[in-house]
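Troubleshooting: if your tokenizer reports a length mismatch, compare against these two reference records.
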Amino acid sequence: MKKYLTIISLLFYPIFFTSCKKDFLDVAPGSQLSSATFWRNADDANKAATGVYSAWANGHAYQIYFADDWSDDAIPTGFWHFFYYYSWGIGGLSPQDANINDYWSALYSVIRSTNVFLTNVGKCKMDEDLRNRLIGEVKFIRAYEYFLLYNFWGEVPLVSQPLNISELKVARAQPGETESFILQDLNDAISYLPVTPPEAGRITKGAALSLKARILLYEGKYGDAADAAKAVMDLNVYKLLRTPAGDGYYQLSNTRQGNNQEEILGWQNDGVNRNNDQVQYMNCLTNTLVSPTKALVDSYDGYDKTIDQIVAVDESTDISRFQNRDPRLNFTIGHTGSVVNGQTLNSNEAPLSNESTGYGVVKFITDEVKANAPHFTTDNILIRYAEVLLTYAEAKIESGQIDQSVLDAINDVRSRAYGTTVDDIAHYPEVTSTDQATLRKIVRNERRVELAFEGLRWFDLKRWRIAAGTGGTMNGPVSGAFLSPGNYINAGSRALSDKDYLRPIPQAQVDLESSGVLTQNPGY
């Protein structure tokens, strides 16, 4: 069932879900299905679950691939400076921003679809094991949406039923309640979901455990995060994608390697035309929304394989800057000297000269270098095993439980990046230190370069509290490609303060719920 997450039933979808453009709890007339005509059997339940998947995947896929514009790794390109990817990343948001309201509404629209399902699926005459599996899948999706809401806005209104217009006044949750709600959904999902999916693209126990580990890590509950990540590892169904040619990292993102042993969860894609899906812009170097920064380029280690040592980067020319570097740099960022599908790139020439920084994202390019490439042939990966390994390592480091398993987890990821195995220590920069401060720095940077442009960087900056204020990674000028020694493209500037760790509650939602019900975040 390769297209499971991308097919929408044209008969079912319009009546089952409200538009993502509506205010978040608004119920359009006719949006509720009659139990007399639906919710009869397993076929209805499966159709309903498919609708939830479709609303989830098609509602906001951009949050993954463009979210790094909200971080120190990238800045939007050209025209997109006027769009909210830019304002979100420079601390220029206000409660009146319509785009903020649209994003809030899109998330709650998906949540409403999950609530409709969970409220009604008990009416279906069907096998209980199937019912519970579908409940587990839908509870995972609801948890995922609340995870995003919580990380952007903090405590938010918790809605577990499809509400009517008369029931709109829902206050924000009390401290800790949103996290507890998310974890309860995930624990339910873990108890219901199978280890092996019945069809490609279905949510599994491993996905629910992985998201639980991510959330616990973000909340600083390191012991529990390590336990959840270890539970994924102990399933013994996932491992990093390695190839005989040593280009597993490239193959994961740039070719049709969907449903491989590293992908824990992804939105399936068969290379069909994805109309109205902004993800298509990531399959080219022109008109993209994402321009990598010099700061991201600088985070990739210099490494001399002839002496098996990390070395200083030669900053004398635009070519020398990219020699003897972590291989993930060339697999991720287009720069002067890059060869992509037979085309040699230059930061001073199109298509890279169209980018804000003179750098482009090549991590997801498949067949051609052109604008609006119509086919996106890789899965949109949401969770993969490399993240689980790094979550485990970081959680153990922060817990002060540093042992060989921590080094093994980091070295598993790092050795794959260099096209070799963990045991081949002469051909990659093996991590051997057991010093907590040293390992903290290493694992944080490893997350940055391994997971670049996979939508997680902002969340890392937020939980580490290193983005805003004096010395913050998102304060000051944004530099790009090399111009001359010590001189780089100026792509703008940013100025984030502590209030920017949370987004403003959309004023449209505050007004919708009447004065005093939905309170605003501090500083807005």
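Reference record two:
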Amino acid sequence: MTPLNATRLTTLLVLLLGSAPAAGQARQARPNRGAVAADHAAASLAGAQVLRAGGNAIDAAVASALALGVVNPTSSGLGGGGFAIVYLARQNTLIALDFREVAPAALTPASFVVDGKVRAELATLGGLAVGVPGELAGLHKLSREYGRLPWPSVVSPARNLARGGFSVSWFLAKAAREFLMGPNRDKPEVTALRHQLAQLGVAGSDWSRRDLAATLADIAKNPRALYQGRLAKSLVKTVADHGGVLTTKDLEAYSVVIRTPLVGTWNGYRIATMPLPSSGGVALLESLALLDNYRATAAWPSERGMQLHWIAEALKHAFADRAAHLGDVDGGSAVAARLLDPTRLKALAKKTDLSRTGPPERYGLPVEADLDDGGTSHVCAIDSEGNAVALTTTVNGYFGSKLITPDGIVLNNQMDDFALRAGAVNQFGLVQSKANLVTPGKRPLSSMTPTLVLDDSGVRGCVGGSGGPYIISATLQVLVSAFGDKLAATDAVSRPRIHHQWKPNELVVLPAMPEHERRVLRAAGHKVVQKDREAVVQLIKRDGSTFDPASDPRKGGRPAITN
């Protein structure tokens, strides 16, 4: 999509920020050129204006993420959590922030057993599904430690959107309609959310969220407001009223974890991505390394269908390894190192038939399940100094647990990302090993894959996506398209993609996939299945002072560039 130029949108930007940033130094700061790509145009603009006010890429990413929680509660918000990969240009330093949700102290696998049987639906709907939210803690830490503007200044765009209203996107309108007509619409757990969504109207309608605006005003004054005091008690009561065990002590104990990013090499670039509890980083680097190994034995196919076959084979290995080995963060670095060992990956590549796919047993455990996508958002931000943030945030499923607090906060259903029993599958059809069993205080495995691309000149790209396990396959393909095939950002994110997660043994395509490419994939032995949903990717390519951003058209987002 064509990026929005912030200088031509003064009226909308005044609405986003109000009269001015909170501090005089912010008003006097030199504008910082850069680009922001998010799932919604208003969120991209929020980040772009923060850049224009003198903020850096970190400020922009935080402002955009907070705004996304207002304009697209389907996918993210204060009741969720996420990951961020940050590059600080002057220090030439990479940082990984884990603000993933945490299992409450009283939650165990037995919590989901009723009459001797595991009730998987308890991990997707209602109070037991809710993990301790980490988004606010993570965003504030990003702002405080690495940002340039005062905290109230980066909260202001989201607060003004909630208070002044915004245009309902087609994506939000569609998700709300599906929920209001869906099988859970009459359950008592969803009453509050149903009442709120019934007010938003059709796509293009104006919608304000005054309850959330008041919450954001409180948070601007006190970034710990969600973890102690009135807002914390309100959140805990909402969870408890619907069968959950989360407590104020769980909220008070929450902390953001700084981790060491996973860094690999591919096609002359350094690829920096998220370590465990993200499975996405390991799977991405494994897939890229396998593609390099494939290309060491045969030329990259000229036929797009065969390129996609190679990609599918790499993904099948990566998802099989995910199911068998990934989960517990303790010892995670050692696990990742074993999985990404070059000798092991060469052996895996030699097993791969580059002309035809193999049976699931060649890749891992035989478990079948259906696929679905999920509620997640991604923000990319790069500024003129070369600072960059890839930030993915989520409430897990669409509208998370379907619980909303009286303060306008949609709560996650992140407990479904745990295994309720070894070998089980979650709502996304992902096989779960015993390493990912739900445990008090533990962070569940994730598919989020925030990623930065670097070379000797600094950051060259930022990419990440939303959509459950589709995030991994989509991020991989956009990277290959943008930095392997050298496509422009818009072409890279718009290109038809495939998805394969090893189990179920099917290769998913969208209706846009050309028939001749499908024929090639079928001839290679794949069971080709068409589905209408997949990941939504944000991408920024950077070449010196030139920015090429793109927001995936599949969700209606739009990037913004500052001058």
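Descriptive notes for reference record two:
- The chain is about 35% helix and 20% strand.
- The mean pLDDT is 89.
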